[in-house]
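Structure tokens
________________
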Amino acid sequence: MDREKGSRRVMEGVKASHDGMKSAPRKKFKKPQAQGSKTAELAEGVLGGSRIHLGKAITLLESSNPQDKQTGQDLLNRLLPHTGNSIRIGITGVPGAGKSTFIETFGEMLTGLGHKVAVLAIDPSSSVTGGSILGDKTRMENLARNPKAFIRPSPTAGTLGGVHKKTRETMLLCEAAGYDVILVETVGVGQSETLVRGMVDMFLLLVLTGAGDELQGMKKGILELADAIIVHKADSDNMKLAEKTVREYKQILHFLQRATEGWKTQALPASSLEQTGIREIWDMVKQFEDTVKVSGYFTVRRQNQTKDWFRSMITDELLSRFYSDRERSGKVKTLEQQVLNEELTVSQAIADLFE
């Protein structure tokens, strides 16, 4: 009897549980949000100045996923009418010149004046692992916490070829988000300087005291890219030597081709440590902007940069499509081996490949 009663209780409990499950309301699953509304929401967030939405938008543009790429371009098209309203400044420097310290001090001064500042750092990526340092927020802790600033590293993935696309599109997104000063930091003196010069309005070169010693290791071409030379770390006992270095650079600049039509390249001392000369640099930037806008060269330069961007993207797309074809890629390897075995000349191999 006890066993029968126990069995009935178990059965009643199971039934009650089953009935309870049937009576429980079903969860309503939301339908996936339409892609167009997602893009619209992201665009609205960027235009509203949300740093979270801006970060998501940049990540979308950097994605290699075909669907993300298309969504990213749709987003960019929506935001394009709200771009172009900034001064774009490239910043480079010799090793040890203190670029990050200068950018943080300069950026904090600008935000204090009511400007919104975006810092885009061309970050060196490992050619072996593809990893990048991405340490800009660590190097600029105070600026990273500033609500009027946005810092974003742009990893090069082992090649500088992608810089013109990623950084240019990121600049446009930052402008749409209301950032009126864009600072583009390069990895050092080298090929990246030429690429950055081709996407900014003004180019600053940071150097240290002792122009003669530095010029031995600096290419003339780098100096000819600069609209201003900043003799950094001009503080305390180093001030007199810094002023002497400024005079030396001013003499040198007389013999060099100007980087911007109608603008005489300037040389100024500055100290991020003592925060001297920083405001004077910004006054010079504004003077530069006024000068090139009045002459019309500001618009001409930007149009030429867009044209160069368009053409470089054609090259990138051709290379991408060329190597994505398996048959053609296999033929490249075969011909390459024949060239190495001296069975064909390089010219013959190229002729065979393109037939």
Residues 297-324 form the longest helix (28 residues). Strands lie at 87-93, 117-123, 149-155, 181-185, 202-207, 228-231, 266-269. The domain at 36-82 is CATH 1.20.5.170 (Single alpha-helices involved in coiled-coils or other helix-helix interfaces).
